[in-house]
Amino acid sequence: MKDFSDKLKNLPKKPGVYLMRDSEGRIIYVGKAKILKNRISQYFQKSAAHSPKTLSMIVNIDDFDYIITETEVEALILECHLIKRHKPKYNILLKDDKHFPYIKITKNEEFPRILITRKHEKDGARYFGPFMSGFAVKDNVEILRKIFKIRTCTKVFPRDLGKGRPCLMYHINQCGAPCARKISAAEYNENIAQATMILEGKFADITASLQEQMQAASDNLEFERAARIRDKIKHIKTLGEKQKITSTQEDNRDILGFFQADDAICVQIFYMRNGKVAGAEYFVFETPEESDSCEVFSEFVRQFYFNLTNIPKEILLPCELNDMEVFEQFVSEKAGHRIYVSVPKRGDKARLVKMAIENAEESYRRHKFTRDKEETDQNDALAGLMEVLSLPAPPFHIESYDISNISGEKSVGACVVYQNAMPQRKSYRKFNIKTVDGADDYASMREVVYRRINRAYDEQDKIAAGELAPELAKFLPLPDLILLDGGRGHVAVIKELLATMGEEIPVFGMVKDDKHRTRGLTSDTTEFDIPRDSEVFRFLTRLQDEVHRFAITAYRKRHESDMVHSELEDIPNVGAATRRRLLTHFSNIERIKSATLDELCEIINKRAAQSVYDYFNKNAE
């Protein structure tokens, strides 16, 4: 342990945040303190009370900094910001909330929409979330759209009102078609209000209201309308039946529990709204053995509610936080009203917390089973590839390449990356083909692989010169195995290229049958037979489908971008900044074409607007 005795003497007796750094200056831990001098000094006192995690961190501390704040609440907020920014090694890390999906109900449109978004903006819309399960959010949004016939199009009203016929969604009875005036604004907005009530968990209120409407329609002999309302009630009850655990009062509260395993902690959260459990999530974090579970739990709770937008009036916990009063003050200020945070010891609330604890243990067991199965499948796939292809070691880093074009126009090369048999989407790369004319897959594949490896060489040189940190390299390391979406010819071309560059990376092709489905692997001379029921075959099928999907998507984006860009470039008085404003506001070229002169003038200057309007209307004539 490094001696910080001189520095510790001058620490202030004020609240604030401290940052622990390693020998390379990286921040490895961020913490907050009521009194900085007392809290930081505790780390460097010989004490048997230190947890293994803390001891492991202390021996790696080479220096520390601190920031003074006015209050403990300010320190808590700053701590959360710094953890999100620096992602220290010894802090519990939640994913950045921008990755979490929200359900958004637009409010600034004549006919609002229900959307899934990963950004929470101050745009007047109503947001619900964030949710940790993207699949659950998508399922809920689709059900709400279907029940209430909410539009999914991006038409702008009133501009597009009455223009054109209803789309397919109307004809399959999944949209009210406000664009064609098939539903009034009042009725449509009533549907939006009912969908909002469901997201708020008010199942009983909305069901009672719909029952009254159904009875009224029946009394007025409007049997078709009564039947539609009956079907709505049926779907809503189906959603409501998923919320089977109720409390005796109409309360909004979050109920938390956790389970400590040998190497991990699982936190379970139940969201109770209007007396019903309207949702549940769990989180699993790896922790060193003998970690202080309440300390880990406290850190999780702070970060979780720092990201959360809708905080209920009560939060029930299984143990005291190490900064209970400060946390309660923080969430109250964030919510704009008093939030009660407590650790119930008896009664109904204690039983709810016990239920959360029991579910945390069960969630951890399910998580562990799934994780172990995934690891087994990954190991089987990699071991199988090593055996089939006679590789010296399992190929932990695999890269796959494909070329996409139509008649050789605007060819795009795609590279997908798999680590431990799992896709690493942040490492995917696309390459616009620059040196090849026409539909020459071999030459295009050669260009893509050459550019990829050459980028790695450039990064190696920059790292050696101290111009690039190793962890910031995007093309290093080189892959253990390259799999091409192609046959023997593709493999022969890339093997020749690698030999020329002095690289000994195994290269094979993924071949397809006459129905364009994965058949197996091939070298430049031999095709390998792989059993269809093997984990290797299933892995290859997923990989080939993924690289093909990514290549097609990359090609379409390039093709659409070039089409829009080139057409707007032909218009006089329209520069790059004007094009960006037009595309940002109207989203696509078709909307720009159909815009009125007044609508264009609201976005760009009058001269440019007149040029755009004249260009498209003159061409239309």
Word description of this protein:
Helix 8 (203-219) runs antiparallel to helix 9, helix 12 (347-389) packs across helix 15 and helix 13 runs parallel beside helix 14. The chain has 19 helices and 19 strands. The termini are far apart. Helix content is 46%, strand content 18%. The longest helix has 43 residues, at 347-389. Strand 18 (518-522) and strand 19 (527-528) form a beta hairpin. It is globular. It has 621 residues and is α+β, with helices and mostly antiparallel strands.
Which key terms come to mind for this protein?
single chain, 621 residues, alpha+beta, 8-stranded mixed sheet, 5-stranded mixed sheet, 19 helices, 19 strands, 46% helix, globular
Counted by DSSP, the helix tally is: 19
Strand content range: 15-25%
Taking all Cα atoms into account, the compactness measure Rg is 30 Å
Report on the biggest sheet.
8 strands, mixed
Distance between the termini: 81 Å
How would you sum up this structure in a few lines?
The chain has 621 residues and is of the alpha+beta class. It has 19 helices and 19 strands. The strands form 4 sheets. Strands 12, 13, 14, 15, 16, 17, 18 and 19 form an 8-stranded mixed sheet that branches. A 5-stranded mixed sheet has the order 9-8-7-10-11. A 3-stranded antiparallel sheet has the order 2-1-3.
Walk me through the topology.
Elements lengths: L4 H5 L6 E6 L5 E7 L2 H8 L8 H7 L4 E6 L3 H15 L15 E4 L8 E4 L8 E3 L5 H15 L19 H4 L13 H15 L3 H17 L3 H19 L11 E8 L3 E10 L2 E11 L6 H15 L6 E3 L7 H12 L4 E3 L4 H43 L7 E10 L2 E11 L2 E2 L5 E4 L8 H24 L16 E4 L3 H14 L5 E6 L5 E5 L4 E2 L6 H35 L6 H11 L2 H6 L2 H5 L4 H15 L1
Parallel strand pairs: 7-10, 10-11, 12-16, 16-17
Antiparallel strand pairs: 1-2, 1-3, 4-5, 4-6, 7-8, 8-9, 12-13, 13-14, 13-15, 17-18, 18-19
Helix pairs in contact: 4-11, 8-9, 12-15, 13-14
